[in-house]
Amino acid sequence: MPSPTPAPFSDFADIDAFTRIPRVTSVAAGPDGRVVASVDEVDDHGAARRTALWELDPEGLAPARRLTFSSQGEGTPRFSSDGALLFTSRRPAPGEDDPADAAGLWRLPEQGEATLVARTPGGLGLVGVAADGSVLATTSVLAGGALDGDAERRRARGQAKRCAIWHTGMPIRRWDHELGDVSPRLVLVAPDGRVRDLTEDADTLALSGASADLSPDGRTVATTWTERVERGQTRTGLVLIDTRTRERTVVLAADDHQEYGAPVFSPDGSLLAVTRTTVSTPKDTGYAFLEIHRLDGGEPTAVDVGDLTFGGYVWDHGGSLLVTGDLRSSGAVLSVDPGTGRVRTLAEAGVFTSLAPAPDGSLYALRSDVATPARPVRLAPGGERTGLPAPGAVDTLPGRLERVWADVDGVRVGAWLCLPDGASAAAPAPVMLWIHGGPHSSFNAWSWRWCPWLAVARGYAVLMPDPAMSTGYGHAGLNRGWPRRPDVVYGECEALLDQVLERPELDGSRTALLGASFGGFMVSWIAGRTDRFSAVVTHAGSWAMGQQHRTTDAASKKMRVHGLEDEQPEWYRDFSPHQGASRVVTPVLITHGNRDYRVPVSEALRMWWDLVSGWEGPPETMPHRFLQLTDENHWVLTPSNSRVWNETVLAFCDQHLLGAAPIPESLPW
Fold it and tell me: Is there a cis peptide before residue 623, judged by omega within 30 degrees of 0?
């Protein structure tokens, strides 16, 4: 029996129900007009999300129909040229009782049951599909090994409970996992399931975090290739791999000033769209440039995307390059003529992701904005937009959304203001100022992790600025305030806050300051320099910058920009938040995940010690709190932990802005 489509959600006061809203995460378009979406749903215990594949009606009339039902979930849907749906899953193969330890590649015909195509001990991740049905996939082998014998080596390592990793250079971590114990590989999976390793000489770093693509004829792979250089730095260039001979050729070499990534072949295989990124310095952030290279030689075509900070691109079936990204606190989709580089706008007023062109000229995508979660849409060749029914719809919001602006030293800075229903001069709403992470990011789309409408449902107004270094305002916007100047960012945020607080329906005597990642660094720094806020919440924020720059998984980039303390003493003296520890008088809530390697938990531990040891009153009167999430990373991903995090953050603000009872010693959620 197909799963019914859940009803639209509207009760933002119910945080547990909010965490259980299905989420559409990607769409794929087939050669015969079919459209399939990946939909995440929460298990009964709130312990994990599982992804299922749903068929969507391209016309937007019929309800979605669920295709897959395994408890292990299915992901990364891609269509083959014959119309079959490929996906990855740990589901047991026919005749097996238990799920596999790693994901395999599966094939689901339009009529019939799914069959297992291939499986490797390190799991398979689907990257590209050629016209002949061969598949480019990612996998891994234990360091120093090969595909042959990898299963036995993994079994022996597990039985011996061996966990040692032998490091010979940097980096050694990425986000929430260790590097160096396995060697990532690219493999070619034939239609009959045979698996060939195309990168047998790859070390543990070369393909770590790689982006790759398979040419339409299946003969060439384009992939990033990373190498170590002096002083702990790395360089990432692009190589081509002949899938028959496995010969590797450097096509775009990195140097001290630029790197390359995100290769995508054109439909005829003659062109390669790539991203060229300049290396950041103390004076300039890294800038991304979109280029189209001819594989038979010649000068590349440089694409001028204007102020768009592009985040992805695909080729349509007619040979144009479709580019999506952030633009002025919203987003857009551009179409690029590969011969001239000429650009025209296909869609705007929303953030578009997961672009999936169809043979008839339509474009399927996920569209989101601050008031709408990602929803599947069809963009017709003439520009008409049609929403496609799918699980996870949101109905009535508990407030309204406004665009606000402020002039700061001649720069027009924008923000989104979420206002609760019922806010008035007679009953003004308390205000939260949120500062986004990055710093190269934007408040332009729906966020499941930081959803302002949960706070709005409690009566708060939420101000979300896009200050200096935000995406979508061109390279000048990215570099304004570089290198990570909290004084510049706060100056722009505070100007916006002061301006909206002139409105009678907002209460300037009850304000809170919240931020995560770079935003967490920002609010920790601000807390030591002003007492204007009633509460401060910092998630995954840096505290002692000399310590964080050396211990983050991105140490090479941080140290290249900021150097040692004696090399940039003014920056460390003025902008490391720990310098203001003795001046923090506002109640602070610290939240942090133990598995966060981008901002290691040592930042939270040191901040917590500095605040607690600096409190001069009786311990029971100390206002600061620390929510430690022992199995989370830079983000709070487990649904049950997400509920705890949201409940705790809002209750902490309720206590200090609304006079609610303090959170008890044992969390009630």
Answer: no
DSSP secondary structure letter of residue 572: H
Hey, CA dihedral for 478, 483, 485, 491, is it positive or negative? negative
pLDDT digits (tens, 9 = 90+) for 373-429: 999 999 999 889 999 999 999 999 999 999 999 999 999 999 999 999 999 999 999
Question: Is 399-658 a CATH 3.40.50.1820 domain?
Answer: yes
DSSP 8-state symbol, 660: P
Count Cβ atoms within 10 A of the Cβ of residue 652 and give its class: 0-12 exposed, 13-18 middle, 19 or more buried. Answer: buried
Cis status of the peptide bond prior to 430, with omega within 30 of 0: no
**Strand-pair category, 588-593 with 625-629:** parallel
Of 600, 439, 607, residue with least CA distance to 528: 607
Q: Evaluate if residue 51 carries a pLDDT over 80.
A: yes
Residue type, 348: E
Residue 3 confidence (pLDDT) above 50 = yes
Q: Which pLDDT band, with edges at 50, 70 and 90, does 4 fall under?
A: low
Exposure string over 31-65, b if 16+ CB within 10 A, otherwise e = eeebbbbbbbbbeeebeebbbbbbbbbbeeeeebe
Read off the tokens for 647.
Answer: 């409940």
Please state, in angstroms and rounded to a whole number, the distance separating the CA atoms of residues 248 and 590.
Answer: 48
Backbone angles phi, psi at 115, to 5 degrees: -125, 150
Contact between 618 and 425 (Cβ < 8 Å): no
The pLDDT tens digits of the residues spanning 290-303 come to 999 999 988 999 99
pLDDT tens, residue by residue, 153-164: 999 999 999 999
Q: What pLDDT band is residue 88 in, cutting at 50, 70 and 90?
A: very high
Q: How far apart, in Å, are the Cα atoms of 607 and each of 175, 490, 543, 629?
A: 21, 20, 6, 16
Q: How confident is the model at residue 7 (pLDDT cuts 50, 70, 90)?
A: confident
Which letter does DSSP use for residue 201 in this model? Answer: T
Helix (H) or strand (E) run with residue 220 in it: strand 220-228
Q: What does the pLDDT look like over 475-489, one tens digit per residue? A: 999 999 999 999 999
Going from the C-alpha of 239 to that of each of 206, 327, 410, 510, the distances in angstroms are: 11, 31, 45, 56
Residue 260: phi, psi to the nearest 5?
-130, 150
